[in-house]
Every structure is written in structure tokens, then in C-alpha cells.
Amino acid sequence: KDHPLVAQYLDWNHNMTLLNTFVIGLHNKIQLDGRLHPNFSFATTGRYRCSGPNLQNLPKPDKAPIRKQIIPETDDSVLYGIDWEQLEICLIAVCYNMPKLIEEIKNGEDRHQKSADKFGIPRHDAKQCNFAIFYGATKYALTKHNLDPDTTGQQFINYIHSEYPDLRSIHERIRESCVDGQITNIFDRTRRSSKFTELVNFLIQGPAGDLNKMMLIKTNELGKLYESRPYLDIHDELIFTVRKEEEKEYLTNVIEKSYNNINDEVERWFGFRLPLDLKFKIKKGPNYGELKEI
Q: In principle, which of 52, 147, 224, 288 could form an S-S bond with 153, CB 3.0–4.6 Å?
């Protein structure tokens, strides 16, 4: 693998994938008006799924400049990206009903950094391991995160279970649901399956999809008098095309008002309030590839 030809081949293969999938592939999907019109449907978790073409798997800006091709609707507009902060760990705390983790989040503690400091690994690696364990992964699944299953991997699992002793019983209840063949999440949606991973994913990712749906509905309700509008759904992030002449008003009266009152929307649709105040970050840019936090 250290031979220079291997590196050249891998580089060539990467570039060919970009060319065929994201250059030629996207170009072939352009319709008569000169635009891409992807289709959005629901995945089994409840999140939006994009196809024809899939704009949710575009490479990150440091890998290729493909995202820069996603531009505002008009020349006198800019893009805004609204992304929930720490959404997955918040939903794990809420959907699993873990009071200790909820309090840690409320107090501003960083679960991933605590794990990173404990094991002397980068925060990104600790984050991946934390999520793997919260989703019920075994010690052998941690090998892809460079942890030896019989030493550091098992120690990591033991550490998380010592921090949250109720996690084992939570996973056991989900395994019991596998026998029943279905499970219901906090928003009273039911998924039928006998597979543990599918039920866990549904418990956490289903509510994430519903939160974005609520924001799409609310921003459309508040934005009826504006030409600016929601543009794309990229996983947990909503992209808006915003007319420059409406920018300040639309940001204040539509985007911020909707996101700041997410718990009001949860209560409106589902009759209860989340025990956490979800936070979000706002990014702005001339295109999707150059969104910067403001």
C-alpha cells in the first residue's frame, strides 16, 4: 500500500467518482428550465430522503467544490442554512429518557469532550464511539474507530455504561420490542421491525425528521408575505433562499421566530414540551458550499 502507484490510483478513483456522480451525473439531471428538481420522499425513519438527484450526499467543500453549484433562486438572493446544534445527543437524552444526560446538556457539558479527555483521543473519534454505544454497538463495532475490542473498546463501553447505568436496561427494552415487532417513538409514531438497529434508529432519527417538518410548516406559515422560502432539506439542516431586500425581516420574523419557538410547535402538534431547549446555528453564503456561521 506504500507504493506510489497505489496513491495515484486512489486519487484517480476519487476523481472519477466525482466526475461521474457529481459532474456528469448532476448535469444529466438538469431539466428544461436549467435547474435541478430533486424528489423528496420519507425514509423509514421519518426523515426526508432526496433522489433524482440526491443532493444530501454531496461531498464536503474540502473534498470537492460541488456544493458551490447549489446557488440561490435569483441573483438578488443569498442562501441561509439553519442547523440544529448537538441535535442527536439531545434526542438520545430525550428519547431514551436519560435525566443525567439531559442535565449535562442543560449545564453546557460536552459529552464528547469528556470521553475524549478520558481516553486521550480526538473529540471527533470520541463522538463516533459515544454514538455507536448509545445506538447499542458491541465492542467489535468500535474497531472501525481504531479501538481494540478487548481492551480500549471494552473499556470505553464500560465507561459509558458507568456514566449512564440505565443505558443497558434501555437497550434491553428495545430488544424486547424486537420480539413484539414494533416500537413507538416520543411523537407517537410507530415502526414495525424485528431488527434492533432499525428500531433504535427510528426512536432517535424519527423525531429529528419531525422537528424539521415542523420548521418547514412554521416558516411557510410565517413567510407567506415574503418571496423568500425554504429551499432544501439536507438531513438536519434546512436551506433557505432569501431575497436581499427581505433579508433582515425574513431572518427575524420567520427563521429566528420559528426556531426559537420550537417547543411551542412540539406542544402544538404533539401535546407536550421537550425537557430541553434546542439550540441552532445560522449560516449564510452566496452558495451552499460557502455557508459561514453568523
A: 147
Query: Quick count: other Cβ atoms within 10 Å of Cβ 260?
Result: 13
H/E segment holding residue 158: helix 154-163
**Whole-number Å distance between alpha carbons of 90 and 103:** 10
0.85 exceeded by pTM: yes
Grid cell locating 247: 433579508
- Would you state the cell numbers that stand for residue 186, as one nine-digit string? 416520543
Q: Which long-range contacts (CB under 8 A, 24 or more apart) does 228-234 make?
A: 228/77, 228/254, 231/72, 231/73, 231/79, 232/55, 232/70, 232/288, 233/40, 233/48, 233/50, 233/56, 234/55, 234/56, 234/81
Helix (H, G, I), strand (E, B) or coil at 230: strand
What the block records as the C-alpha cell of 3 is 507504493
| 90 neighbors 276 (Cβ within 8 angstroms) | yes
Using one digit for the tens of pLDDT, what is the confidence trace for 40-82?
999 988 899 999 999 999 998 888 899 999 999 999 999 999 9
* 3-state DSSP assignment of residue 48: strand
Give the list of residues 6+ apart from residue 69 with CB closer than 8 angstroms, or none: 26, 287, 288, 289
